[in-house]
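Exercise (ungraded).
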Amino acid sequence: MNNIFVYCEVTEERSIADVSLELLSKGRKLADDLKVKLEAVVIGHKVTKLEALLYPFGVDVIHYADDEKLFPYTTLPHTTVIIELFKKEHPEIVLFGATSIGRDLAPRVASALRCGLTADCTSLEIGDHFDNKSQTEYRNLLFQIRPAFGGNIIATIINPETRPQMATVREGVMKKELYSVKYKGKLNKIDARSILKDEDFAVTIIERHLEKSRIDIKNAQVIISGGYGVGSKENFRLLFELAEILGAQVGASRAAVDAGFVEHGRQVGQTGVTVRPKLYIACGISGAVQHRAGMDQSAQIISINTDINAPINQIADYTIIGNVADVIPRMIKYYRKNSK
Amino acid sequence: MRFRIIVLAKQVPDTRNVGKDAMKADGTVNRAALPAIFNPEDLHALEQALSIKDKIPYAEVILLTMGPTRAAEIIREAMYRGADHGYLITDRKFAGSDTLATSYALSLAVKKLAPYHLVISGRQAIDGDTAQVGPQTAEKLGIPQITYAEEILSLDAKKIIVKRRLERGVEVVNSTLPALITVHSSAPPCRQRIGKLLMKYKHARTVTELQNETKDYTELYNERPYLLIEEWSAEELKADNEWLGLSGSPTKVKKIENVVFQHKESKILSNSDKDIEKLMQTLISSHIIG
Protein backbone atom coordinates (compact mmCIF):
# COMPACT_ATOMS: atom_id res chain seq x y z
CA MET A 1 0.00 0.00 0.00
CA ASN A 2 1.12 3.56 -0.67
CA ASN A 3 1.79 6.25 1.88
CA ILE A 4 -0.12 8.92 3.77
CA PHE A 5 0.52 12.54 2.86
CA VAL A 6 -0.27 15.68 4.84
CA TYR A 7 -0.25 19.09 3.20
CA CYS A 8 1.50 21.38 5.69
CA GLU A 9 0.49 25.03 5.67
CA VAL A 10 3.17 27.66 6.10
CA THR A 11 2.25 30.41 8.58
CA GLU A 12 3.03 34.14 8.43
CA GLU A 13 5.99 33.43 10.73
CA ARG A 14 7.34 30.92 8.17
CA SER A 15 6.63 28.00 10.44
CA ILE A 16 4.09 25.18 10.08
CA ALA A 17 0.47 25.76 11.11
CA ASP A 18 -0.90 24.00 14.19
CA VAL A 19 -3.65 22.35 12.18
CA SER A 20 -1.01 20.67 10.00
CA LEU A 21 0.88 19.39 13.05
CA GLU A 22 -2.38 17.98 14.38
CA LEU A 23 -2.92 16.22 11.06
CA LEU A 24 0.61 14.83 11.09
CA SER A 25 -0.17 13.34 14.53
CA LYS A 26 -3.34 11.76 13.16
CA GLY A 27 -1.58 10.76 9.94
CA ARG A 28 1.13 8.99 11.93
CA LYS A 29 -1.49 6.88 13.71
CA LEU A 30 -3.19 5.99 10.44
CA ALA A 31 0.22 5.17 8.92
CA ASP A 32 0.97 2.83 11.83
CA ASP A 33 -2.44 1.16 11.39
CA LEU A 34 -1.74 0.60 7.71
CA LYS A 35 2.01 -0.04 8.14
CA VAL A 36 2.94 2.66 5.67
CA LYS A 37 5.02 5.83 5.77
CA LEU A 38 3.99 9.36 6.65
CA GLU A 39 5.03 12.08 4.23
CA ALA A 40 4.68 15.86 4.61
CA VAL A 41 4.25 18.28 1.72
CA VAL A 42 5.57 21.79 2.39
CA ILE A 43 5.24 24.50 -0.26
CA GLY A 44 6.57 27.92 0.64
CA HIS A 45 9.73 29.93 1.03
CA LYS A 46 12.42 29.99 3.71
CA VAL A 47 10.47 27.93 6.21
CA THR A 48 12.36 27.97 9.50
CA LYS A 49 13.60 24.83 11.27
CA LEU A 50 11.45 22.68 9.06
CA GLU A 51 13.17 19.35 9.61
CA ALA A 52 13.65 19.79 13.36
CA LEU A 53 9.98 20.67 13.71
CA LEU A 54 8.42 17.94 11.59
CA TYR A 55 10.44 14.76 12.12
CA PRO A 56 9.43 14.37 15.79
CA PHE A 57 5.83 14.01 14.59
CA GLY A 58 6.88 10.78 12.92
CA VAL A 59 7.42 12.18 9.43
CA ASP A 60 9.38 9.85 7.16
CA VAL A 61 9.72 12.16 4.17
CA ILE A 62 9.37 15.92 3.79
CA HIS A 63 8.66 17.04 0.23
CA TYR A 64 9.73 20.65 0.21
CA ALA A 65 9.20 23.14 -2.62
CA ASP A 66 11.08 26.29 -1.65
CA ASP A 67 10.67 29.28 -3.93
CA GLU A 68 9.93 32.95 -3.34
CA LYS A 69 7.02 32.71 -5.79
CA LEU A 70 5.34 30.11 -3.57
CA PHE A 71 4.86 32.34 -0.54
CA PRO A 72 2.36 33.67 0.38
CA TYR A 73 -0.04 30.97 -0.76
CA THR A 74 -1.90 31.32 -4.05
CA THR A 75 -4.10 28.55 -5.45
CA LEU A 76 -2.67 27.68 -8.84
CA PRO A 77 1.07 27.28 -8.16
CA HIS A 78 0.41 25.13 -5.07
CA THR A 79 -2.10 23.02 -7.04
CA THR A 80 0.40 22.45 -9.85
CA VAL A 81 3.22 21.43 -7.50
CA ILE A 82 0.95 19.02 -5.62
CA ILE A 83 -0.49 17.42 -8.75
CA GLU A 84 2.97 16.82 -10.19
CA LEU A 85 4.10 15.27 -6.91
CA PHE A 86 1.03 13.05 -6.55
CA LYS A 87 1.27 11.80 -10.11
CA LYS A 88 4.69 10.47 -9.18
CA GLU A 89 4.02 9.30 -5.62
CA HIS A 90 0.42 8.01 -5.84
CA PRO A 91 -0.56 8.65 -2.22
CA GLU A 92 -3.08 6.39 -0.53
CA ILE A 93 -4.48 9.13 1.71
CA VAL A 94 -4.03 12.92 1.75
CA LEU A 95 -5.06 15.20 4.60
CA PHE A 96 -5.49 18.99 4.44
CA GLY A 97 -6.44 21.50 7.13
CA ALA A 98 -10.00 22.77 6.68
CA THR A 99 -8.73 26.35 6.60
CA SER A 100 -9.21 29.03 3.96
CA ILE A 101 -6.10 27.56 2.30
CA GLY A 102 -6.99 23.87 2.59
CA ARG A 103 -10.60 24.43 1.53
CA ASP A 104 -9.39 26.42 -1.48
CA LEU A 105 -6.67 23.99 -2.53
CA ALA A 106 -8.00 20.48 -1.78
CA PRO A 107 -11.09 20.65 -4.04
CA ARG A 108 -9.04 21.96 -6.96
CA VAL A 109 -6.55 19.12 -6.51
CA ALA A 110 -9.35 16.54 -6.14
CA SER A 111 -10.99 17.76 -9.33
CA ALA A 112 -7.77 17.53 -11.30
CA LEU A 113 -7.03 14.03 -9.99
CA ARG A 114 -10.70 12.97 -10.22
CA CYS A 115 -10.60 11.61 -6.70
CA GLY A 116 -12.96 11.90 -3.74
CA LEU A 117 -12.72 14.57 -1.08
CA THR A 118 -14.62 14.89 2.19
CA ALA A 119 -14.75 18.27 3.90
CA ASP A 120 -14.56 19.01 7.62
CA CYS A 121 -14.19 15.49 8.94
CA THR A 122 -14.59 15.12 12.68
CA SER A 123 -13.15 11.62 12.78
CA LEU A 124 -10.98 9.44 10.54
CA GLU A 125 -10.70 5.68 10.90
CA ILE A 126 -9.45 2.72 8.94
CA GLY A 127 -12.01 0.03 8.14
CA ASP A 128 -13.20 -2.58 5.66
CA HIS A 129 -16.21 -2.29 3.39
CA PHE A 130 -18.26 -4.86 1.54
CA ASP A 131 -20.16 -3.59 -1.46
CA ASN A 132 -23.31 -5.65 -1.85
CA LYS A 133 -24.05 -4.55 -5.38
CA SER A 134 -20.72 -5.57 -6.88
CA GLN A 135 -20.00 -8.23 -4.23
CA THR A 136 -16.59 -6.66 -3.71
CA GLU A 137 -14.64 -6.52 -0.49
CA TYR A 138 -12.57 -3.38 0.06
CA ARG A 139 -9.93 -3.60 2.78
CA ASN A 140 -8.39 -0.80 4.78
CA LEU A 141 -10.39 2.13 3.48
CA LEU A 142 -10.33 5.54 5.10
CA PHE A 143 -13.66 6.09 6.84
CA GLN A 144 -14.28 9.84 6.66
CA ILE A 145 -16.82 10.77 9.28
CA ARG A 146 -18.55 14.13 9.31
CA PRO A 147 -21.80 15.72 10.36
CA ALA A 148 -23.96 16.66 7.39
CA PHE A 149 -27.27 18.29 6.68
CA GLY A 150 -26.73 21.13 9.10
CA GLY A 151 -25.50 18.70 11.72
CA ASN A 152 -28.65 16.61 11.87
CA ILE A 153 -26.98 13.45 10.67
CA ILE A 154 -23.52 11.91 10.82
CA ALA A 155 -22.27 10.43 7.59
CA THR A 156 -19.46 7.97 7.00
CA ILE A 157 -17.97 8.60 3.56
CA ILE A 158 -15.65 6.25 1.69
CA ASN A 159 -13.80 6.29 -1.64
CA PRO A 160 -13.71 2.62 -2.65
CA GLU A 161 -12.25 2.98 -6.13
CA THR A 162 -10.30 6.19 -6.45
CA ARG A 163 -6.97 7.25 -4.96
CA PRO A 164 -5.87 9.25 -3.12
CA GLN A 165 -8.59 9.32 -0.49
CA MET A 166 -8.66 12.96 0.56
CA ALA A 167 -10.12 14.72 3.56
CA THR A 168 -10.00 18.11 5.24
CA VAL A 169 -10.12 18.52 9.03
CA ARG A 170 -10.60 21.69 11.06
CA GLU A 171 -8.09 23.03 13.50
CA GLY A 172 -8.48 21.64 17.01
CA VAL A 173 -10.33 18.49 15.96
CA MET A 174 -7.28 16.20 16.08
CA LYS A 175 -4.80 16.27 18.91
CA LYS A 176 -1.23 17.51 18.39
CA GLU A 177 1.11 14.86 19.81
CA LEU A 178 4.83 14.31 19.34
CA TYR A 179 5.64 10.82 18.10
CA SER A 180 9.29 10.54 19.07
CA VAL A 181 11.78 13.35 19.61
CA LYS A 182 14.51 11.23 18.05
CA TYR A 183 12.57 10.34 14.92
CA LYS A 184 14.44 11.11 11.70
CA GLY A 185 13.15 11.25 8.16
CA LYS A 186 14.60 12.53 4.94
CA LEU A 187 14.16 15.66 2.87
CA ASN A 188 13.07 15.59 -0.76
CA LYS A 189 13.53 18.97 -2.42
CA ILE A 190 11.12 19.80 -5.24
CA ASP A 191 12.37 22.06 -8.01
CA ALA A 192 9.26 24.22 -8.44
CA ARG A 193 10.71 26.37 -11.25
CA SER A 194 10.81 23.41 -13.58
CA ILE A 195 7.13 22.60 -12.92
CA LEU A 196 5.39 25.97 -12.80
CA LYS A 197 3.96 27.64 -15.89
CA ASP A 198 3.14 31.29 -16.55
CA GLU A 199 -0.61 30.58 -16.32
CA ASP A 200 -0.13 29.52 -12.73
CA PHE A 201 0.39 33.16 -11.87
CA ALA A 202 -2.95 34.44 -13.22
CA VAL A 203 -3.81 35.57 -9.69
CA THR A 204 -1.43 37.91 -7.91
CA ILE A 205 -1.61 39.31 -4.42
CA ILE A 206 -1.76 43.09 -4.36
CA GLU A 207 -1.98 43.59 -0.68
CA ARG A 208 -2.53 41.61 2.46
CA HIS A 209 -2.71 42.59 6.03
CA LEU A 210 -3.41 40.76 9.20
CA GLU A 211 -6.56 41.76 10.92
CA LYS A 212 -6.03 39.66 13.93
CA SER A 213 -9.53 39.07 15.11
CA ARG A 214 -9.87 40.41 18.61
CA ILE A 215 -11.97 37.40 19.30
CA ASP A 216 -9.83 34.46 20.30
CA ILE A 217 -12.19 31.85 21.61
CA LYS A 218 -9.97 28.98 20.51
CA ASN A 219 -7.47 29.50 23.30
CA ALA A 220 -9.93 30.51 26.01
CA GLN A 221 -9.97 28.44 29.21
CA VAL A 222 -13.57 29.31 29.91
CA ILE A 223 -16.23 29.93 27.27
CA ILE A 224 -19.71 31.30 27.86
CA SER A 225 -21.63 30.35 24.75
CA GLY A 226 -25.08 31.45 23.70
CA GLY A 227 -27.64 29.96 21.35
CA TYR A 228 -30.87 31.01 19.77
CA GLY A 229 -32.52 30.52 23.15
CA VAL A 230 -30.70 33.56 24.52
CA GLY A 231 -33.36 35.42 22.59
CA SER A 232 -31.75 38.71 21.63
CA LYS A 233 -28.62 40.77 21.18
CA GLU A 234 -29.52 42.54 24.43
CA ASN A 235 -29.61 39.30 26.39
CA PHE A 236 -26.21 38.39 24.98
CA ARG A 237 -24.83 41.34 26.98
CA LEU A 238 -25.38 39.27 30.09
CA LEU A 239 -23.08 36.61 28.65
CA PHE A 240 -20.42 39.23 27.99
CA GLU A 241 -20.82 40.51 31.52
CA LEU A 242 -20.29 37.06 33.02
CA ALA A 243 -17.37 36.46 30.66
CA GLU A 244 -15.74 39.70 31.72
CA ILE A 245 -15.91 38.71 35.38
CA LEU A 246 -14.65 35.16 34.81
CA GLY A 247 -11.94 36.17 32.33
CA ALA A 248 -13.77 34.09 29.76
CA GLN A 249 -14.66 34.49 26.09
CA VAL A 250 -18.14 34.53 24.59
CA GLY A 251 -18.99 31.88 22.02
CA ALA A 252 -22.16 31.19 20.08
CA SER A 253 -24.07 28.54 18.18
CA ARG A 254 -24.74 28.84 14.49
CA ALA A 255 -28.39 29.72 15.12
CA ALA A 256 -27.33 32.67 17.30
CA VAL A 257 -24.89 33.89 14.66
CA ASP A 258 -27.47 33.51 11.88
CA ALA A 259 -29.95 35.45 13.98
CA GLY A 260 -27.42 38.28 14.15
CA PHE A 261 -26.95 38.17 17.95
CA VAL A 262 -23.14 38.03 17.63
CA GLU A 263 -20.44 38.00 14.94
CA HIS A 264 -19.38 34.89 13.05
CA GLY A 265 -15.92 34.85 14.64
CA ARG A 266 -17.52 33.55 17.83
CA GLN A 267 -19.23 30.56 16.26
CA VAL A 268 -18.42 27.23 17.84
CA GLY A 269 -19.04 24.05 15.90
CA GLN A 270 -18.39 22.28 12.66
CA THR A 271 -18.57 25.42 10.55
CA GLY A 272 -17.03 27.60 13.24
CA VAL A 273 -14.25 27.01 15.71
CA THR A 274 -13.50 23.81 17.60
CA VAL A 275 -12.76 24.45 21.27
CA ARG A 276 -11.64 22.43 24.28
CA PRO A 277 -11.88 24.76 27.26
CA LYS A 278 -11.77 23.82 30.93
CA LEU A 279 -15.31 25.03 31.26
CA TYR A 280 -18.03 25.51 28.64
CA ILE A 281 -21.27 27.14 29.69
CA ALA A 282 -23.95 26.59 27.05
CA CYS A 283 -26.72 29.14 27.42
CA GLY A 284 -29.93 28.51 25.53
CA ILE A 285 -28.18 26.12 23.15
CA SER A 286 -30.18 23.08 22.11
CA GLY A 287 -27.11 21.15 20.97
CA ALA A 288 -27.23 20.19 17.30
CA VAL A 289 -24.44 17.81 16.34
CA GLN A 290 -22.75 20.46 14.31
CA HIS A 291 -22.40 22.51 17.51
CA ARG A 292 -21.45 19.58 19.72
CA ALA A 293 -18.73 18.59 17.27
CA GLY A 294 -16.99 21.83 18.19
CA MET A 295 -17.21 21.63 21.98
CA ASP A 296 -17.88 18.11 23.26
CA GLN A 297 -14.24 17.69 24.30
CA SER A 298 -14.60 20.47 26.88
CA ALA A 299 -13.49 19.33 30.33
CA GLN A 300 -16.69 20.53 32.04
CA ILE A 301 -19.97 21.51 30.46
CA ILE A 302 -22.80 23.41 32.08
CA SER A 303 -26.06 23.80 30.23
CA ILE A 304 -28.58 26.49 31.07
CA ASN A 305 -31.82 25.73 29.30
CA THR A 306 -35.54 26.01 29.85
CA ASP A 307 -36.02 22.69 28.07
CA ILE A 308 -35.07 19.70 30.19
CA ASN A 309 -35.03 17.58 27.01
CA ALA A 310 -32.54 19.73 25.10
CA PRO A 311 -29.96 17.32 23.61
CA ILE A 312 -27.06 19.36 24.99
CA ASN A 313 -28.07 18.37 28.52
CA GLN A 314 -27.05 14.81 27.77
CA ILE A 315 -23.41 15.77 27.46
CA ALA A 316 -23.49 18.36 30.22
CA ASP A 317 -22.03 17.79 33.68
CA TYR A 318 -24.59 20.16 35.15
CA THR A 319 -27.90 21.28 33.74
CA ILE A 320 -29.68 24.26 35.17
CA ILE A 321 -33.31 24.30 34.19
CA GLY A 322 -34.08 27.95 33.79
CA ASN A 323 -34.06 31.07 31.72
CA VAL A 324 -30.68 32.53 30.74
CA ALA A 325 -31.76 36.08 31.56
CA ASP A 326 -32.73 34.92 35.00
CA VAL A 327 -29.87 32.55 35.84
CA ILE A 328 -26.80 34.47 34.65
CA PRO A 329 -27.25 37.57 36.83
CA ARG A 330 -27.36 35.25 39.83
CA MET A 331 -24.25 33.37 38.68
CA ILE A 332 -22.52 36.74 38.61
CA LYS A 333 -23.85 37.60 42.04
CA TYR A 334 -22.77 34.33 43.67
CA TYR A 335 -19.42 34.28 41.96
CA ARG A 336 -18.69 37.72 43.40
CA LYS A 337 -19.89 36.69 46.80
CA ASN A 338 -17.81 33.49 46.98
CA SER A 339 -14.64 34.38 45.13
CA LYS A 340 -13.28 36.72 47.77
CA MET B 1 -19.81 42.40 -26.61
CA ARG B 2 -21.86 41.92 -23.50
CA PHE B 3 -20.11 41.31 -20.21
CA ARG B 4 -21.54 37.95 -19.23
CA ILE B 5 -21.77 36.96 -15.57
CA ILE B 6 -22.97 33.49 -14.65
CA VAL B 7 -24.23 32.97 -11.12
CA LEU B 8 -24.19 29.38 -9.83
CA ALA B 9 -26.85 28.82 -7.21
CA LYS B 10 -28.52 25.95 -5.40
CA GLN B 11 -31.92 25.35 -3.91
CA VAL B 12 -31.38 23.79 -0.50
CA PRO B 13 -33.50 22.47 2.35
CA ASP B 14 -33.43 25.01 5.16
CA THR B 15 -31.33 23.02 7.59
CA ARG B 16 -31.08 25.98 9.93
CA ASN B 17 -34.70 25.70 10.97
CA VAL B 18 -34.98 22.03 11.63
CA GLY B 19 -38.14 21.26 13.51
CA LYS B 20 -39.22 18.16 15.37
CA ASP B 21 -40.66 16.48 12.26
CA ALA B 22 -37.45 16.98 10.25
CA MET B 23 -36.32 13.44 10.94
CA LYS B 24 -38.39 10.39 10.09
CA ALA B 25 -38.83 7.56 12.55
CA ASP B 26 -36.24 5.49 10.70
CA GLY B 27 -33.64 8.18 11.25
CA THR B 28 -33.54 9.55 7.71
CA VAL B 29 -34.10 13.15 6.82
CA ASN B 30 -37.65 14.13 6.02
CA ARG B 31 -36.92 16.55 3.18
CA ALA B 32 -40.60 17.27 2.68
CA ALA B 33 -40.77 18.86 6.14
CA LEU B 34 -37.97 21.30 5.40
CA PRO B 35 -38.72 24.42 3.37
CA ALA B 36 -36.66 24.75 0.17
CA ILE B 37 -34.77 28.03 0.02
CA PHE B 38 -32.24 29.91 -2.09
CA ASN B 39 -28.91 28.94 -0.56
CA PRO B 40 -27.97 31.97 1.58
CA GLU B 41 -24.41 32.53 0.33
CA ASP B 42 -25.60 32.17 -3.27
CA LEU B 43 -27.81 35.21 -2.63
CA HIS B 44 -24.68 37.12 -1.61
CA ALA B 45 -23.16 35.94 -4.90
CA LEU B 46 -26.19 37.17 -6.85
CA GLU B 47 -25.86 40.58 -5.20
CA GLN B 48 -22.24 40.85 -6.35
CA ALA B 49 -23.34 40.09 -9.90
CA LEU B 50 -26.24 42.56 -9.79
CA SER B 51 -24.06 45.32 -8.40
CA ILE B 52 -21.71 44.88 -11.36
CA LYS B 53 -24.73 45.22 -13.64
CA ASP B 54 -25.64 48.46 -11.83
CA LYS B 55 -22.28 49.91 -12.85
CA ILE B 56 -21.79 48.35 -16.27
CA PRO B 57 -24.94 48.67 -18.39
CA TYR B 58 -23.75 46.10 -20.93
CA ALA B 59 -23.38 43.41 -18.27
CA GLU B 60 -25.88 40.55 -18.18
CA VAL B 61 -26.55 38.22 -15.28
CA ILE B 62 -27.48 34.59 -15.92
CA LEU B 63 -28.53 32.27 -13.14
CA LEU B 64 -27.55 28.63 -13.51
CA THR B 65 -28.78 25.91 -11.20
CA MET B 66 -28.90 22.15 -11.13
CA GLY B 67 -31.76 20.29 -9.49
CA PRO B 68 -35.29 18.96 -9.91
CA THR B 69 -38.06 20.93 -11.67
CA ARG B 70 -38.86 22.67 -8.41
CA ALA B 71 -35.45 24.38 -8.44
CA ALA B 72 -36.80 26.75 -11.12
CA GLU B 73 -38.20 28.66 -8.12
CA ILE B 74 -34.79 30.13 -7.39
CA ILE B 75 -34.34 31.14 -11.04
CA ARG B 76 -37.57 33.15 -10.84
CA GLU B 77 -36.48 34.55 -7.49
CA ALA B 78 -33.22 35.74 -9.08
CA MET B 79 -35.15 37.29 -11.99
CA TYR B 80 -37.38 39.18 -9.55
CA ARG B 81 -34.22 40.69 -8.10
CA GLY B 82 -32.59 41.62 -11.39
CA ALA B 83 -31.12 38.57 -13.17
CA ASP B 84 -31.64 38.57 -16.95
CA HIS B 85 -32.12 34.86 -17.64
CA GLY B 86 -31.82 31.48 -16.03
CA TYR B 87 -31.07 27.92 -17.01
CA LEU B 88 -32.03 24.76 -15.14
CA ILE B 89 -29.88 21.68 -15.59
CA THR B 90 -32.05 18.77 -14.75
CA ASP B 91 -31.88 15.05 -15.45
CA ARG B 92 -32.40 11.84 -13.53
CA LYS B 93 -28.86 10.94 -14.50
CA PHE B 94 -27.60 13.62 -12.11
CA ALA B 95 -29.13 11.88 -9.07
CA GLY B 96 -26.60 10.92 -6.42
CA SER B 97 -23.96 13.36 -7.65
CA ASP B 98 -21.22 14.29 -5.21
CA THR B 99 -19.34 17.57 -5.55
CA LEU B 100 -17.09 16.25 -8.33
CA ALA B 101 -19.97 15.02 -10.52
CA THR B 102 -21.90 18.24 -9.79
CA SER B 103 -18.99 20.43 -10.81
CA TYR B 104 -18.60 18.42 -14.02
CA ALA B 105 -22.24 19.03 -15.01
CA LEU B 106 -22.08 22.70 -14.03
CA SER B 107 -18.86 23.22 -15.96
CA LEU B 108 -20.45 21.81 -19.15
CA ALA B 109 -23.37 24.22 -18.79
CA VAL B 110 -21.03 27.16 -18.20
CA LYS B 111 -19.07 26.21 -21.33
CA LYS B 112 -22.33 26.15 -23.28
CA LEU B 113 -22.84 29.76 -22.20
CA ALA B 114 -19.41 30.85 -23.48
CA PRO B 115 -18.08 33.42 -24.04
CA TYR B 116 -18.45 34.44 -20.39
CA HIS B 117 -16.35 36.73 -18.23
CA LEU B 118 -17.15 35.87 -14.68
CA VAL B 119 -18.66 32.95 -12.77
CA ILE B 120 -19.86 33.76 -9.25
CA SER B 121 -21.24 31.43 -6.61
CA GLY B 122 -21.68 31.31 -2.87
CA ARG B 123 -18.77 29.86 -0.92
CA GLN B 124 -20.80 26.87 0.25
CA ALA B 125 -24.33 25.48 0.53
CA ILE B 126 -25.91 24.98 3.94
CA ASP B 127 -26.98 21.38 3.31
CA GLY B 128 -23.43 20.14 2.77
CA ASP B 129 -21.11 22.94 3.91
CA THR B 130 -18.33 21.52 1.72
CA ALA B 131 -17.25 24.63 -0.24
CA GLN B 132 -15.96 22.26 -2.94
CA VAL B 133 -18.19 22.84 -5.96
CA GLY B 134 -16.82 26.33 -6.70
CA PRO B 135 -13.10 25.39 -6.87
CA GLN B 136 -13.89 22.11 -8.66
CA THR B 137 -15.95 23.90 -11.32
CA ALA B 138 -13.11 26.40 -11.81
CA GLU B 139 -10.65 23.55 -12.28
CA LYS B 140 -12.89 21.85 -14.84
CA LEU B 141 -13.21 25.15 -16.72
CA GLY B 142 -9.47 25.72 -16.52
CA ILE B 143 -9.91 29.21 -15.06
CA PRO B 144 -8.53 30.81 -11.88
CA GLN B 145 -10.60 30.82 -8.69
CA ILE B 146 -10.92 33.43 -5.98
CA THR B 147 -12.58 31.96 -2.91
CA TYR B 148 -13.82 33.72 0.24
CA ALA B 149 -14.54 36.93 -1.69
CA GLU B 150 -16.01 39.79 0.29
CA GLU B 151 -15.97 42.63 -2.21
CA ILE B 152 -15.22 43.21 -5.87
CA LEU B 153 -13.08 46.34 -5.79
CA SER B 154 -12.68 46.92 -9.49
CA LEU B 155 -13.31 45.28 -12.80
CA ASP B 156 -12.67 45.73 -16.49
CA ALA B 157 -12.91 43.45 -19.53
CA LYS B 158 -9.63 41.70 -18.74
CA LYS B 159 -9.09 41.75 -15.01
CA ILE B 160 -10.74 41.88 -11.63
CA ILE B 161 -9.58 42.99 -8.19
CA VAL B 162 -11.19 41.26 -5.25
CA LYS B 163 -10.94 41.55 -1.48
CA ARG B 164 -10.90 38.18 0.28
CA ARG B 165 -11.86 37.60 3.90
CA LEU B 166 -9.61 35.00 5.55
CA GLU B 167 -9.29 33.68 9.11
CA ARG B 168 -6.53 36.00 10.14
CA GLY B 169 -6.90 38.94 7.83
CA VAL B 170 -7.71 40.41 4.50
CA GLU B 171 -6.12 39.79 1.12
CA VAL B 172 -6.57 41.82 -2.07
CA VAL B 173 -5.89 39.91 -5.27
CA ASN B 174 -5.82 40.66 -8.96
CA SER B 175 -6.95 38.01 -11.41
CA THR B 176 -7.21 37.70 -15.16
CA LEU B 177 -10.68 37.01 -16.61
CA PRO B 178 -12.55 34.78 -17.00
CA ALA B 179 -12.39 33.70 -13.38
CA LEU B 180 -14.62 32.03 -10.81
CA ILE B 181 -15.38 33.75 -7.53
CA THR B 182 -16.96 32.26 -4.42
CA VAL B 183 -18.60 34.77 -2.12
CA HIS B 184 -18.40 34.72 1.66
CA SER B 185 -21.31 35.58 3.95
CA SER B 186 -19.48 38.71 5.10
CA ALA B 187 -20.29 40.26 1.69
CA PRO B 188 -23.36 42.54 1.47
CA PRO B 189 -26.77 40.80 1.54
CA CYS B 190 -28.85 40.57 -1.61
CA ARG B 191 -31.29 43.30 -2.57
CA GLN B 192 -35.01 42.54 -2.30
CA ARG B 193 -37.40 41.74 -5.13
CA ILE B 194 -38.33 44.61 -7.40
CA GLY B 195 -42.08 45.00 -7.98
CA LYS B 196 -41.75 45.73 -11.69
CA LEU B 197 -39.63 42.63 -12.25
CA LEU B 198 -41.99 40.49 -10.22
CA MET B 199 -44.79 41.51 -12.58
CA LYS B 200 -42.60 40.93 -15.61
CA TYR B 201 -41.39 37.45 -14.68
CA LYS B 202 -44.15 35.96 -12.54
CA HIS B 203 -45.26 33.73 -15.43
CA ALA B 204 -41.72 32.56 -16.25
CA ARG B 205 -41.74 28.75 -16.44
CA THR B 206 -39.62 25.84 -17.58
CA VAL B 207 -40.95 23.51 -20.27
CA THR B 208 -41.76 20.88 -17.66
CA GLU B 209 -43.61 23.39 -15.53
CA LEU B 210 -45.62 24.54 -18.56
CA GLN B 211 -46.71 20.97 -19.25
CA ASN B 212 -48.10 20.79 -15.73
CA GLU B 213 -50.01 24.07 -16.01
CA THR B 214 -53.74 23.87 -16.57
CA LYS B 215 -53.78 27.34 -18.13
CA ASP B 216 -52.69 27.68 -21.76
CA TYR B 217 -49.60 29.85 -21.96
CA THR B 218 -48.99 29.50 -25.73
CA GLU B 219 -50.13 32.96 -26.70
CA LEU B 220 -48.39 34.66 -23.80
CA TYR B 221 -45.13 32.89 -24.60
CA ASN B 222 -45.32 33.79 -28.30
CA GLU B 223 -45.63 37.40 -27.25
CA ARG B 224 -43.00 37.23 -24.50
CA PRO B 225 -40.46 34.54 -25.38
CA TYR B 226 -38.16 35.72 -22.58
CA LEU B 227 -40.50 34.03 -20.09
CA LEU B 228 -39.27 30.58 -21.03
CA ILE B 229 -36.67 29.17 -18.66
CA GLU B 230 -34.57 26.71 -20.60
CA GLU B 231 -33.95 23.22 -19.27
CA TRP B 232 -30.81 21.33 -20.18
CA SER B 233 -30.52 17.57 -19.90
CA ALA B 234 -27.33 15.50 -19.73
CA GLU B 235 -27.65 14.87 -23.44
CA GLU B 236 -27.96 18.54 -24.28
CA LEU B 237 -24.82 19.15 -22.27
CA LYS B 238 -23.11 16.37 -24.26
CA ALA B 239 -22.13 14.86 -20.93
CA ASP B 240 -20.18 11.64 -20.57
CA ASN B 241 -22.47 9.38 -18.52
CA GLU B 242 -19.48 7.90 -16.71
CA TRP B 243 -18.87 11.27 -15.12
CA LEU B 244 -22.44 11.80 -13.93
CA GLY B 245 -24.45 10.89 -10.87
CA LEU B 246 -23.37 7.92 -8.81
CA SER B 247 -20.88 6.56 -11.33
CA GLY B 248 -19.19 9.95 -11.59
CA SER B 249 -18.95 10.33 -7.83
CA PRO B 250 -15.83 8.93 -6.18
CA THR B 251 -17.26 9.48 -2.69
CA LYS B 252 -19.87 7.01 -1.48
CA VAL B 253 -21.98 7.26 1.62
CA LYS B 254 -21.28 4.14 3.63
CA LYS B 255 -23.47 4.94 6.57
CA ILE B 256 -25.83 7.64 7.80
CA GLU B 257 -26.56 7.88 11.44
CA ASN B 258 -29.18 9.89 13.07
CA VAL B 259 -27.63 11.94 15.77
CA VAL B 260 -27.37 9.90 18.91
CA PHE B 261 -26.18 11.55 22.06
CA GLN B 262 -24.08 9.55 24.43
CA HIS B 263 -25.59 9.76 27.83
CA LYS B 264 -23.39 11.28 30.44
CA GLU B 265 -24.34 11.48 34.09
CA SER B 266 -25.74 15.00 34.21
CA LYS B 267 -26.74 16.66 37.41
CA ILE B 268 -30.01 18.49 37.01
CA LEU B 269 -30.16 21.68 39.03
CA SER B 270 -33.11 23.93 39.63
CA ASN B 271 -32.77 27.64 39.13
CA SER B 272 -33.08 28.28 42.83
CA ASP B 273 -30.59 30.61 44.52
CA LYS B 274 -29.36 27.69 46.60
CA ASP B 275 -28.49 25.50 43.60
CA ILE B 276 -26.79 28.27 41.68
CA GLU B 277 -24.73 29.39 44.65
CA LYS B 278 -23.66 25.80 45.32
CA LEU B 279 -22.62 25.35 41.70
CA MET B 280 -20.52 28.52 41.75
CA GLN B 281 -18.86 27.36 44.98
CA THR B 282 -18.03 23.99 43.43
CA LEU B 283 -16.50 25.64 40.36
CA ILE B 284 -14.43 27.99 42.48
CA SER B 285 -13.23 25.35 44.91
CA SER B 286 -12.16 23.04 42.07
CA HIS B 287 -10.22 25.96 40.52
CA ILE B 288 -12.14 25.77 37.28
CA ILE B 289 -12.89 29.45 37.66
CA GLY B 290 -11.61 32.16 39.95
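Further reading is listed at the end of the chapter. For now, observe: Chain B has a mean pLDDT of 91. The helical segments of chain B are 40-55, 72-81, 99-112, 133-141, 195-201, 207-212, 218-223, 273-285.
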